[in-house]
Amino acid sequence: MQTATPEQRKAPRPRADALRNRERIVTAAREMFVEHGPEVPLDEIARRAGVGNATVYRNFPDRDALVREVVCSVMDRTAAAAELALAETGDAFEALERFVHAAADERISALCPMVSSTFDKHHPDLEAARERVESQVAEVMDRARAAGQLRSDVDVGDVMIAVAQLSRPPAGTDCFRADPFVHRHLQLFLDGLRAPARSVLPGTAVTLEDLRQP
């Protein structure tokens, strides 16, 4: 089976109803992966999406293809939140704050186990989505740092780890009980990023290269 390129994945589809069905499947899968984990039956996803099983398999020939599309969709939405922050002309650190809270709402931590699963983490769709997120977040942070509002001893990896860890527990662990605390704890973290720093952090800033180390 030939692997689709990022351009093919994002290419407009000729039939509006087919596009709507695909979006409904991805939305339903994202919700159920967060609630139950990546092994939720595809039949249940089809039922929530309001489509037949054949429609699911016509769009996604196997579970890996669907998981990959969900992860890419969340990364795309996270990158869009960063782009929106960059488009703002006001306070640079407040733009960073709004991005972090928006990224948490995308339930990144619930998707982490899927990114580390057996499917190809170097698939071109995933690589393109990841690069877009990373470059946008770096630019948001660089702007806040240039304004003298972001401490100098943190990097993109620090922010992404915090968002993933603080946004919710792993999927399938009654994680919705944590929702009332997510933005409260994220704001505590964000206050610690402000410059001038009140303390010296142990270790060194976490870069994206550090996160990719095996």
From TrEMBL:
SUPFAM superfamilies documented for this protein: Homeodomain-like, Tetracyclin repressor-like, C-terminal domain
Record Gene3D superfamilies: Tetracycline Repressor, domain 2 (1.10.357.10)
Keywords from the named record: DNA-binding, Transcription, Transcription regulation
UniProt KW Transcription keyword: yes
Domain HTH tetR-type: 19-78
Ranges annotated as DNA-binding: 41-60
Alphabetical list of InterPro entries matching this protein: Homeodomain-like_sf, HTH-type_TetR-like_transc_reg, HTH_TetR, Tet_transcr_reg_TetR-rel_C_sf, TetR_SbtR-like_C
PROSITE patterns for this protein: HTH_TETR_2 (PS50977)
Protein name, per record: TetR/AcrR family transcriptional regulator
